[in-house]
């Protein structure tokens, strides 16, 4: 969970600082938002080059950046560009929720990606997933809570984009996102270490004797 939170904090921090630096330099709202978007694009390019691969999420974020800039250029509506980050959050929230009924939810996939460092560890995760309903329930609940909270927060911010002045929206938006992520991270730590869930961390560190023919 910590690596995921770090990624989100980086993205959110870089979304607000360039905007107000441009505003302090005397730039308009539109120019400042475009400048902030350009900084986000540079960071995204750096991440892609560093890891030498591009995945579906990176392509989606590139698409949002391009679409946001294009819509702003065509319509002249700076609020469309201001709502871009809310769309990112909404997409993540929907991804958490829609994967729950279809096999393995996003929370499980993210946790396994960051916490299972080798094929043997990944097999232990898969074996526990197949064999233990309680282990599956932990990730179903986690995905539901994160998905619902992020989607609700994104919808609220999109509404505020069209009700409040742009400078106020930008100033409030990022602290609200950071606060939500902090609350969700604290909740996840508490939930993961509840008595009924605390056993799974120990079992993931120990080779299991499960025999499974088919993985869900």
From TrEMBL:
Organism of origin: Fodinicola feengrottensis
Protein's UniProt keywords contain Membrane: yes
NCBIfam families: VC0807_fam
Source superkingdom: Bacteria
Name of the protein in question: DUF3159 domain-containing protein
Transmembrane segments: 31-49, 56-75, 87-110, 145-164, 170-191
Keywords: Membrane, Transmembrane, Transmembrane helix
């Amino acid at each position: 969970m910590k690596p995921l939170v770090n990624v989100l904090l980086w993205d959110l921090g870089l979304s607000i600082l360039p905007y107000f630096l441009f505003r302090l330099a005397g730039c308009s709202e539109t120019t400042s938002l475009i400048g902030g978007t350009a900084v986000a694009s540079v960071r995204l390019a750096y991440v892609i080059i560093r890891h030498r691969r591009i995945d579906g999420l990176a392509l989606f974020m590139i698409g949002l950046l391009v679409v946001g800039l294009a819509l702003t250029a065509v319509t002249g509506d700076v609020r469309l560009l201001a709502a871009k980050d809310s769309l990112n959050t909404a997409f993540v929230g929907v991804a958490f929720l829609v994967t729950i009924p279809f096999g393995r939810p996003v929370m499980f996939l993210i946790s396994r990606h960051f916490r299972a460092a080798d094929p043997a560890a990944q097999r232990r995760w898969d074996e526990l997933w197949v064999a233990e309903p309680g282990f599956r329930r932990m990730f179903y609940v986690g995905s539901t809570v994160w998905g619902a909270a992020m989607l609700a927060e994104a919808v609220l911010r999109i509404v505020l984009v069209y009700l409040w002045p742009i400078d106020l929206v930008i100033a409030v938006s990022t602290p609200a996102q950071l606060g939500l992520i902090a609350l969700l991270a604290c909740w996840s730590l508490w939930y993961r270490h509840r008595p009924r869930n605390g056993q799974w961390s120990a079992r993931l560190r120990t080779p299991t004797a499960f025999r499974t023919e088919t993985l869900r």
